[in-house]
Write a structure and sequence with these properties.
The structure is a homodimer. With about 325 residues, the first copy, chain A, is α/β, with parallel strands linked by helices. In chain A, about 40% of the residues lie in helices and about 20% in strands. The first copy, chain A, contains 10 helices and 12 strands. In chain A, helix 9 links the parallel strand 11 and strand 12. In chain A, helix 2 runs parallel beside helix 3, helix 6 packs across helix 8 and helix 7 crosses helix 8. At the A-B interface, helix 8 of A face helix 8 of B.
């Protein structure tokens, strides 16, 4: 049996997991992400942690397939990072550098793309060949798998679907500097924003006014309780999400659309609310795409990172 | 040296070309597409024409790599056609069927996707790994190449980007049955439609009124001559096209966007007019995508079809 590591590099912690070649996670742990000094300690820390683990476990280095890593920024197919603002990183080949430090081959990808690969392999997209993964969290991220392979993009920004244009008349700016991005309507913060706008535009009594600060979960809870204003806000959100997902499917034509991130905790109601709008906007030949919820939670990144290494070096 | 065939199957004619393995087109000819009786003669006619060519040329069948074919409808990665309305075809495996008739291995793809592969290999996308190809003709079609491989889609409708939603407030129906598709604004007919709407909405004197029927080329010609109404129509078209291309690039992040089809005969003015809107709507990490014009014209489909076979069977 061969083994390997999946690394999910975040802005505050690094999740590292140890897998066997069948994809069983045998162990996982975290180390802090030290972003001081342009983040120059991050890769040596990861390499040291992995080497220490191998020494303790008395694993034969010859039995290690390699290391996969997901990074919070654009990474192209050759492992070149194109600025990770959160980590203080510029442009360099992370795969080559971590490989030199750890002594094993390394394959790198963008964190959302890598999480997509994890859900494709062991989660909500299991058994499919073509998948669109969407994380609806503070922002909206995505990852696309085409015939079993990640779409990295020429500049490492493949599947940045949270920044597709959903409303060209929007005047407020998205975090990316553009106006009218998907992320401004379909993220957890986007839903709260839609609710605030709705509340400001009416004198209608609503449970939504009871919350300060108002959260995305509050909006869903008010909807469940039958609050009419909350229901209208959710309907508006479902319409935006359905149109957006249809457009992604009009490009990619996947077997399945997997929804993850905090907003997906709303569960089946999210899929049921969005589907009619999706059906309205999707091209007929792509309408058979299934909707599914992500199932790996925070482990998706580690699974996907190891899968990246397994595909590259597993022979 | 090995050889093979690229077949571009259209609704009225079948273009067949003979290539050597380096991609040099050695010969090309056409046969009519006989769509009578549910199109059941189409594949036997193609097989007979290819066998006849081989007999005349005294090529050794052992030197034939295979046949690639582009089909006007959805085709998945395994060669299953999912209805070609123009040909009268239902659902069947065209690759298996043509292979049995012709005696060579066959690989099939959607015609727009296959043309994209041709432009990727020998045309406007030459030298790139990731490409978006857009045909702006009577309709709007597309093809996407990811790290050198065609995105077929799970149901054979990958890159049906002409049916992305561009205007959710549109009330007129697209040919696909939806409202507000890219094709309604960015095709040759879409441009004429924008011009008609503009003419109907103003008393302004314009050269556009001189043409009946008005064509897409007339609108571009009036723009070149400085007609203010035509220039405003073109600006509106460039804005739609720029937003649309930005959204596709936000998903795919290609090296290059190649524009083909009748509208692309407008040339550099099309690229220059569209670019500022593209820059406004594209995610920053994907903004370095180049724009280029298609260069293979009607031969793109045959080149791409042969390349499909070469990739599959060329060893």
């Amino acid at each position: 049996m061969k083994y390997g590591f999946g690394v999910d590099l975040g802005g505050t912690t690094v999740k590292i997991a140890y897998f066997d070649e069948t994809g069983t996670m045998l162990s996982k742990w975290e180390i802090p992400t030290v972003t001081d000094d342009g983040g120059k300690r991050i890769l040596p820390d990861i390499a040291a942690s992995i080497r220490q683990y191998i020494a303790q476990k008395t694993v034969e280095p010859a039995d290690i397939i390699g290391i996969g890593i997901g990074v919070p920024g654009p990474v192209n197919g050759r492992g070149v990072v194109n600025k990770c603002v959160n980590l203080g990183w510029g442009v360099f080949n992370i795969a080559d550098e971590l490989s030199a430090l750890a002594g094993f081959p390394v394959k790198a990808g963008n964190d959302a793309n890598v999480a997509a690969l994890g859900e494709y392999w062991k989660g909500g997209g299991k058994g499919c060949e073509n998948m669109v993964f969407v994380t609806l969290g503070t922002g909206v991220g995505g990852g696309i798998v085409v015939e079993g392979r990640l779409l990295h993009g020429a500049h490492g920004s493949g599947a940045e679907i949270g920044h597709m244009v959903l409303n060209r008349d929007e005047t407020e700016k998205c975090g990316c500097g553009k106006c009218g991005c998907v992320e401004q309507y379909c993220s957890a913060t986007g839903i709260v924003r839609l609710a605030r706008r709705a509340m400001a535009g009416t004198d209608e009594v609503s449970r939504l006014h009871r919350f300060d600060p108002l959260t995305c979960k509050d909006v869903f809870d008010c909807g469940k309780a039958g609050d009419p204003l909350a229901l209208r806000v959710l309907e508006q959100f479902y319409a935006y999400l359905g149109e957006f997902l249809a457009d992604v499917c009009n490009v990619v034509d996947p077997d399945v659309v997997v929804l993850g991130g905090g907003v997906s905790k709303a569960g089946q109601v999210l899929l049921d609310g969005t589907r009619p709008y999706f059906d309205q906007y999707v091209f007929h030949a792509a309408r058979d795409a299934r909707f599914a919820l992500a199932s790996l939670g925070n482990d998706a990144g580690a699974y996907g990172a190891f899968k990246l290494a397994l595909d590259a070096f597993g022979g």
